[in-house]
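<instruction>
Derive structure tokens from the sequence
<data>
Labelled lines for chain and fold
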Amino acid sequence: MFRTSRKPRAGRKTGRRSPLASVSLIALGLLLSGGAYALVSSSTAVADTSSTATQATVEEGEKLFQANCATCHGLDLEGSDDGPSLIGVGSAAVDFQVGTGRMPLQAHAPQAPVKPVQFTDDQVNALAQYVASIAPGPSIPEDQYLDAEGDAARGAELFRVNCAMCHNVAGAGGALTEGKYAPALTGVTPSHIYEAMLTGPQNMPVFNDANLTPEDKRDIITALKFQENSTSVGGHPLGALGPVAEGLFLWIAGMGIIVALTVWITARSN
């Protein structure tokens, strides 16, 4: 007896793969591998570009240092009789000293005064990056700590405890010994205030992150900027120098009024 062959039922797979499926798999594989290669290549290119830019900045900073700073600080940054070593001071110290015009120093004095800045922002950054490339040190602060949006009340308390004895409770500055002084803090940029706390320029102590955390420094900057932008509710602040200035003003003004009134009464009676 002959067996009749059965026809495959409708909807049942026959085991044969469509040619389009193979083509689709090959195309998908090529697409994924090409995308991964492009992603890795672009990341490498960005990293190479950043590295090249950083190296160019350091080289520019080295040229500026040799032309403007090496006379006092030495070609190798180890210092001399006319200037201290800069090894390990970090980019923050350079940004503060050069960015406020204190350096280059015009003449030897008890301390370096603020004067017009002699370099552009890019040149200051190049100098800072070059010094930082020689040895590690405190770096330029991040923007998140310079927004003056911290806790002003807490910052004012920290300032009174750590800074007011020299800079005055109002940040107006004050005299120190041997012709030195604590400068006024009005008009100083948040980055330079932070860098001063971090590096301790002149006679100022160093407030590293173990003494004052970055958030503490942010709060102090917030308090100073809040006070700087606030109006005096008590009338003219008289330089915010405290009760001595106010008492002196009242003494001179009061005595002047009394003397003038006495002279006027005497003249009237004569």
Q: What stands out?
A: The radius of gyration is 34 Å. The domain at 143-229 is CATH 1.10.760.10 (Cytochrome Bc1 Complex; Chain D, domain 2). Strands lie at 174-175, 181-182.
